[in-house]
Each structure stands twice: as structure tokens, then as C-alpha cells.
Amino acid sequence: MKRFKKIVSIALVATMVVASLVGCGSKDKGAAEGGGETFKIGGIGPTTGGAAVYGQAVANGAQIAVDEINAAGGINGAQIELKFEDDEHDAEKAVNAYNTLKDWGMQALLGTVTSTPCIAVVDKTNEDNMYQLTPSGTAVDAIKHDNAFRVCFSDPNQGVASAAYIADEGIAQKVAVIYDSSDAYSSGINETFAAEAAAKGLEIVASEAFTAESNSDFSVQLQKAKDAGAELVFLPFYYQEASLVLKQAKDMEFNPIFFGCDGMDGILDVEGFDASLADGVRFLAPFSSTATDDMTVNFVEAYKKAHDEVPNQFAADAYDGIYIIKAAIEHAKLTPDMSVSELCEGMKKAMLEIKVDGVTAKALTWDESGEPQKEPMVLEIKDGVYNVL
After folding, report:
1. Superfamily of domain 24-153+294-367
2. pLDDT tens figures, 72-117
3. Do the domains 24-153+294-367 and 156-285+379-388 sit in the same CATH topology, yes or no?
4. Helices 155-168 and 184-199, interaxial angle, to 10°?
5. Which of 37, 85, 88, 240 is most buried, with most CB under 10 Å away?
6. Which residue from 308, 136, 140 is spatially nearest to 238, judged by alpha carbons?
7. SS3 assignment for 140-170
8. pLDDT tens by residue, 334-368
């Protein structure tokens, strides 16, 4: 496990170097007008559609943090107002949501939730010089400008870390990959996973793609993996499609180890899904609801009380995201009457200086790349529960 952590650290450094090379641009186009007596934070993500579990969790987790902060006196004495818009995991709708939030008076953005919409929106926040913090957009280009930061791990880090874990822990030698070639999140992870798997001596016996237009029948991909003798199938995509893969694999009596990334989180919440199909599934994640530190225990209790369910990592990323925004504003001594551009400039500088303890990591820091420095964990699903390995 020590070797795994070392590789994760190296991957994070490499990711930050790559991101820093693309993270430049002019930032003089922000709105001139200031706000009022409250900080207006916008949120964008899918609260309907196939990725709704993610967006709903982010909206819920963010609101819990906002309520806590407001009850404790706000940020520099000012309250927070949060407005969340649905993008249905669609880039065009995400841009429309951004424009709606701008009309509302948004001063900083928590979002977007998924990668492809985030890549579209980050160009808009860059044009307006608006601070953006994505809780869970993992594609490198989701934070390609210097006004943008993230809470979660990047795609390259997830791909490298997954391959390293599988190899170093001796989980399997023959690996098949099924990935969504039409999605930036899935394709990005697949690319770095394949490179690291080769470097680690893993044998990729099958690499099969699907697209958004062919994401309901995985029988061909699974049959090729089975015929190739795959001991493990890597699934770097979202839980909705993953639930179908597990069902179809059982129907064809194919029982490899299934391994995913943070997009797997939420699979137990799919309506009508037989949780027993996920027994033994492993995936990378930054958060475990069963952790025993006070911060996590209090967050989980508050989330359960508000929503009658256990929070997933997306809720945790958003909860930390609001507190990160708070820390940046307080560190820079900003006030809500400042312009969007003034707030952004102050928060950008603060992000390079603050250190934040959250439920997804302790002592979180960032540099100019916008990437967080933290270590992932691996979870295994057993009897309908996520367990830390």
C-alpha cells in the first residue's frame, strides 16, 4: 500500500504540471458591479436525468455547509445564498444554467458536477473572471484556466492510481477495459490507465468502447472480455451504465472482479438495482461515510437527518467545496459588495495559501494548476455497504 500511495503522489504532481501548462489566460473581463449584503454562490449539476444522483448529492451537501456557515455567523459577517441549477449532464444546458445564475447575481461558482459540462462552463467563467470550484469535474480541461480549481481527483490521477493499485496489490494480471469513448471523463481515465497498466506489467486482454448512443447493451464487450480470460474488468464510467454491466455479466455467468473509479459511487442508489450484484465491486474514492473522525461523523449525521440517506462522495466534495470557498474569502478578507473580478482575484491568491481540513481529506492545499493535493482510498461494496480496504 505504501508503494500505491507513492505512485498516487507522483501522479498528482504530474497532473499539476500538465494543468499548469494550460492554465493561463487573460482575466480582465469580469463584471464591474459588486454584490449586496450576501455572498451569492451558484451551483450547476444534473439534478434530473441519468447522472442525477451526482447532482442531487452535490446540491444537498453544499446546502448543508451553507446552513452551517450561516448559523455560525456567515463569511466575514455576511450570509451565503446558494442557488443550484440543473444541467442534465449536458454541456449546452450547463452554459444556459451559467447564464441564468449570472442574471441572478452569482459571484462564485461551485460546479459543474460532471466533466463535459464543466469543460464548457470553465471557458465562460474565465471570460468573466469568476472564481470556479468544481466539486467533482475530473477532466484535466475542467479547470484549464487559472480562475478554476477542483476538490476531487483528476482523471489522469484516477487512471494511474487504479492501475497501480491493481498491480501492486496483485488483484489480477489479465485485465479487460470497457469505457465510454464519447465521454471526456471515461476516455481520460482509460488513456492513463492503459499506459500505467503497461508500465506495471498488466496484460490488457480486451479494450472495448461504447458511446452515449449505445450504452444499454454491453453483451458484446462482456463476451469479448470473457473469451479473453479477463480476471478483472475495469469500468471507468458512471454508475448508471455500470449497473447494467453487472446485471448483464451475471446473466451470462461472467464473474470477474469489477473495478471502477469515483463514478461508481451511487450505484447502490439506482432504482430497482439488485445490490447483491455489486458485491465485491471495488472503486477509488476520496470519502467514506463510515470514517470515525468527528467532522465526518457530524456531516453524515446532518445529511441523514436532512435527506434520510447516507451521503456519497459527491455530497462530501460539495460540502468541502463550500468550506473551501469560505476559507478563501476569509483569508483574502473579501466582502460581498466587491465585483466578481475583485472576488476572483482575491480568491485565486488565497487558494495558493490556505490549508483546509475537510471530510474528503485533511490539510488540503492547491497550487496554480488548481489541482488538490490529497490521497485516494479504495472502497469495496459488501452486503450493500461501502467498506474501506
Report:
1. Response regulator (3.40.50.2300)
2. 999 999 999 999 999 999 999 999 999 999 999 999 999 999 999 9
3. yes
4. 40
5. 85
6. 136
7. HHHHCCCCEEECCCCHHHHHHHHHHHHHHCC
8. 999 999 999 999 999 999 999 999 999 999 999 89
